[in-house]
Design brief:
This protein has about 350 residues and is α+β, with helices and mostly antiparallel strands. About 45% of the residues lie in helices and about 20% in strands. The protein has helices at about 5-40, 65-135, 155-160, 170-200, 200-205; strands at about 45-50, 60-65, 220, 225, 235, 240-245, 250, 255-265, 270-275, 280-290, 295-300, 305, 320-325, 325-330. The longest helix is centred in the first third of the chain and has 74 residues, at about 65-135. It is elongated and about 155 Å long. About 15% of the residues are buried.
Length: about 350
């Protein structure tokens, strides 16, 4: 073995000795540190409780470790108490808000159920009116069998089955059945629209609208037996008297046709007669003036004169008649009038 190798061996042993010595010194320092810490925490303490009275003094011994541990436990308990108490207050507030919202939701649900009941009653009236109208027009209401348990074309299945369902499911069942019924009603209503469209000319050829445009009119004398306003005796009034309490309001043709008479006489004053299709005539009397001439063709809704007070009259009004051939008929049968106005 050479001198160099011997020197290296000696250096290695010296290094290992130094490391071992240093490690032992470090462990010894750590041990002494923990011993000192243990001695500090193991110091004995005496706690005395001296009452103001002459009762016996209470004392007990403990150490620093137990005192610190007790302090940490007490701090943790108090912290937990305040933490959970705060969360409990927050939870109570949330519960109170949810309770209020629940009351409001229940109130809204009750209102919704009331509205659903009203809708259900309206559906019954709609069903009755639609069935009658379709029967008059000769249209059969087709039922969608795939969506219904029965083949009825009205709401009969809805009105019977829904009464056996309780609670919210009842309202849901009613709405579903009503939706199905309305879907089934679309096709016949479309057929009615087609009929009305094809018969549009017919509606313009018959006196089907009100001859007075002012919506504030009233019927001053109805068709049929009445007391004569001047003579005081009973007689047959052959038309309807429309009054707006003033002169000058527009009078329109109630159907399309040809003006055959524009004249004046002592009874009717200024009046116009229009000839319509299907043997029908209309007369407009006591006019302030006529806006049309004999032979003129007019359309339904066209202004033909103004309300006046000419002829035998007790005030401004329109005397309106409908004739079919030689017969005089009640004009109210052809127009939608509220005779109580």
């Amino acid at each position: 073995m050479s001198k160099t190798q011997k020197a290296l061996k000696k250096a290695e042993k010296q290094f290992a000795s130094n490391v071992s010595h240093g490690f032992r010194a470090f462990c010894s320092s750590i041990g002494r540190f923990f011993v000192r810490i243990f001695k500090v925490f193991d110091r004995k303490l005496t706690i005395m409780i001296v009452p103001h009275s002459q009762n016996k003094v209470i004392n007990f011994q403990t150490n620093v470790f137990a005192l610190l541990l007790g302090f940490l436990i007490a701090t943790g308990v108090l912290s937990s108490f305040f933490y959970f108490n705060r969360h409990s207050i927050s939870a109570n507030r949330e519960i109170a808000n949810l309770t209020t919202q629940n009351r409001e939701t229940l109130a809204s649900l009750d209102e919704l159920r009331d509205e659903n009941a009203n809708l259900f009653q309206a559906a019954k009236r709609f069903q009755t009116s639609l069935s009658q109208s379709l029967s008059l027009l000769g249209i059969e209401q087709v039922t969608n069998n795939s969506n219904r348990s029965t083949s009825n074309s009205d709401l009969a299945s809805l009105f019977t089955s829904s009464e056996m369902v309780q609670g919210t499911s009842k309202e849901v069942a009613e709405i579903k059945e009503l939706t199905t019924y309305l879907e089934d009603a679309v096709k016949p209503i479309e057929q009615v629209g087609k009929i009305l469209k094809t018969q549009q000319n017919l509606f313009t050829e018959i006196p089907s609208i009100c001859p007075v445009q002012n919506p504030n009119y009233h019927i001053s004398m109805a068709f049929g037996p009445n007391v004569h306003p001047l003579q005081g005796n009973w007689y047959i009034h052959k038309g309807l008297d429309f009054s707006t309490y003033r002169s000058g309001d527009d009078v329109v043709a109630t159907a399309s046709g040809k003006v055959v008479t524009v004249t004046f006489d002592n009874s009717f004053g200024n009046y116009v007669i229009i000839q319509h299709s299907h043997g029908m005539y209309t007369r407009y009397a006591h006019l302030l003036r006529a806006n049309v001439k004999r032979g003129q063709v007019v359309s339904q809704g066209e202004v033909i004169g103004k309300i006046g007070n000419t002829g035998i009259s007790t005030g401004p009004h329109l005397h309106y008649e409908v004739h079919i051939g030689s017969d005089v008929v009640d004009p109210a049968k052809y127009i939608n009038l509220n005779l109580a106005k």
